[in-house]
Design goal:
Blueprint lengths: L13 H6 L10 H5 L30 E6 L4 H17 L2 E6 L4 H8 L9 E4 L4 H13 L3 E5 L6 E4 L2 H19 L4 E6 L8 H11 L5 E7 L6 H14 L5 E5 H13 L8 E5 L3 H9 L4 E6 L2 H16 L7 E4 L2 E3 L4 H9 L1 H6 L1 H4 L3 E4 L20
Parallel strand pairs: 1-2, 1-3, 3-4, 4-5, 5-11, 6-7, 6-8, 8-9, 9-10
Antiparallel strand pairs: 10-12, 11-13
């Protein structure tokens, strides 16, 4: 029987997680760089993961157990917990959650509990990556598995290809524009280019839409705040100069604010294309309604990547080779794809076991095991670097 996921795991504010990693290009401190167990501190290109690598030693003195060191209880992390719990159950690992509740000092204390507790592995969503790093390294040096959601250091790092994320949304919009508008479509890009980790999303949108002949970008602007109010206020200004808007792209939260401004001005239309990134519940509800200008959102399936990380933790404890890094791939959700996506959210085990289907969500890189644990990634990894 398939376990029920939390009530809603469609919200994937992955951008919020990426923001904590901004500025990590100088992440490794001098002390860590000089340490004997410092990992790979300079960016390297990783080959595709080879699941047939020869096995190696098992970590000694650790129990078959997995802990999720959770930054907060937002829905994306609830989905992560769901996937980890299911994988632990399937592989016979004891499972627990250490909730940090946005307290970086508590997270440090929780990491420091792993070794005395002989915990075999942990997945962490770091609040203060640099402050947490030495504690994670100490645990990994003694053989424990660390899966990190975005920031280093970790045995396995999970990230999202940001350029590709923006590209998927823009390609979806471009197809709609070519199919729907004979004249040029007036497009608004609501960006937040000041975040170096998220800026590639908007570069991708410009690159993709720039190749479409009937696109007219009438505004390319960063709202003062990346939230609904910011999107609402910015769209009200845009409408003063451009009362006809056909396409709006950005993060879900700002695009939802823009939708409110369009509706208040009486210029929202069923043939418009509003699309966002994050898979927020309100955006999903707009799409499912069938009569909204909101046509698509780009989401990241947290139960699927979490189930994979739980499997990797178990493999690590069994002495197998696992990936050093993993992409969580962006999925475009519209009225035709939401149903299958919701099934996948509810049953990450089935997705993981169907390799061809899993490849729609995950891409794995590099190899590491207990004997080569000193090769952990200690730089901000991205497949797009």
């Amino acid at each position: 029987m398939i376990e029920k996921p939390p009530r809603s795991m469609l919200s994937a504010p992955f951008g919020a997680m990426l923001m904590v990693a901004a500025g990590l290009s100088s992440f490794s401190s001098q002390a860590l760089a000089e340490a004997s167990f410092a990992g790979l501190t300079r960016p390297v290109a990783l080959a595709p993961f080879n699941p047939d690598r020869v096995t190696c030693g098992k970590p000694p003195g650790l129990t078959r157990s997995l802990v999720f060191i959770q930054d907060n209880a937002r829905e994306f992390m609830q989905g992560t917990a769901f996937g980890l719990r299911l994988a632990a159950k399937d592989r016979g690992l004891a499972f627990d959650i250490y909730p940090a509740n946005n307290d970086p000092e508590r997270m440090v204390r929780d990491v420091d509990r792993l070794l005395p507790g002989k915990i075999g592995g942990a997945v962490v969503a770091p609040i203060d990556p640099e402050g947490l790093a030495p504690h994670l390294i100490r645990y990994m040096e003694h053989g424990g598995y660390i899966g990190a959601i975005v920031p280093p250091p970790a045995t396995t790092i999970l990230n999202a290809p940001q350029y590709r994320t923006g590209q998927v949304l823009a390609e979806t919009a471009a197809k709609y524009i070519e199919r729907t508008f004979r004249d040029k479509a007036n497009v608004v890009l609501l960006t937040h280019d000041t975040n170096q980790f998220l800026a590639p999303r908007f570069t991708a949108m410009r690159d993709t839409l720039g190749s479409v002949s009937n696109v007219n970008i009438v505004a390319d602007i960063s709202p003062a705040t990346v939230d609904k109010q910011g999107g609402y206020d910015t769209m009200k200004l845009v409408l003063i100069a451009n009362p006809r808007i056909d396409v709006v792209l950005g993060a879900d939260t700002v695009v939802l604010g823009a939708l409110r401004a369009l509706r208040e001005a009486g210029v929202a239309r069923p043939d418009q294309f509003l699309g966002g990134i994050d898979g927020e519940p309100e955006a999903i509800a707009e799409i499912k309604s069938g009569n909204s200008p909101y046509k698509a959102t780009i989401s990241l399936n947290s139960p699927v990547f979490a189930y994979a990380m739980g499997q990797h933790a178990a493999d690590w404890l069994d002495g197998k080779s696992i990936p050093q890094a993993m992409d969580i791939l962006p999925i475009s959700l519209d009225k035709d794809t939401i149903t299958q996506y919701e099934r996948d959210l509810a049953d990450p085990r089935a997705v993981y076991e169907a390799v061809a289907h899993r490849d729609n969500y995950l891409k794995m890189y590099g190899n590491i095991c207990y004997d080569t644990r000193m090769e952990f990634l200690n730089f901000p990894w991205s497949s797009e670097r």
